[in-house]
Amino acid sequence: MSPRRLSNILHVDDDDSIREIVKVALERLGGFLVSSVPSGEEALCAARERVPDLVLLDVMMPGMDGPATLQALRKDPLTQDVPVVFLTAKAMRKDVTELERLGAEGVIGKPFRARELVEALNLVWQAHLERQGG
Fold first, then answer.
1. Nearest C-alpha neighbor of 113 from the set 25, 42, 41
2. Most CB contacts within 10 A, which of 12, 36, 99, 121?
3. Cβ contacts of residue 58 below 8 Å, gap of 6+?
4. What is the DSSP string of 12-73?
5. Strand pairing partners for 47?
6. How many Cβ atoms are within 10 Å of 50's Cβ, its own excluded?
């Protein structure tokens, strides 16, 4: 049996234009189904309603920021094993190290190239499947 393909992505970003650009890029270039929400609180609800294959998460958001959202996802049995990738302008090495320490499976800097975003998410997904044993 071939490994399961990445298909359902939850994207969380408070910037409307970034959500639209990411959605179009991931759906057109990657063939993914993308759900987009503007806040960490809404991400938690959306992830419980339909558990995504992967969460693409901004760091700096009003209210519940990205790291707090990641910690909440990890505490929920439904979402604790869902890989989380940060898409952020805060991609300095020390920031990346801290996000990885919190449990991020990847950090992608803004600005990004659409094709590279798709490729990076597929690589994270493959590594996730290997860690899960298939």
1. 25
2. 12
3. 12, 13, 14, 15, 18, 66, 86, 87, 88
4. E-S-HHHHHHHHHHHHHHH--EEEEESSHHHHHHHHHHS--SEEEE-S--SSS-HHHHHHHH
5. none
6. 10
**How confident is the model over 105-120, as pLDDT tens digits?**
999 998 999 999 999 9
Which phi and psi angles does 116 have, rounded to 5°?
-65, -35
Q: What CA–CA distance (Å, rounded) separates 71 from 81?
A: 12
Architecture of domain 8-132: 3-Layer(aba) Sandwich (3.40)
Tokens of 35: 């759900």
CA distance 86 to 92: 13
Sheet holding 33-37, edge to edge: 33-37, 8-12, 54-57, 84-88, 106-109
Instruction: Report if pTM > 0.90.
Output: yes
Single-letter code of the amino acid located at 50: R
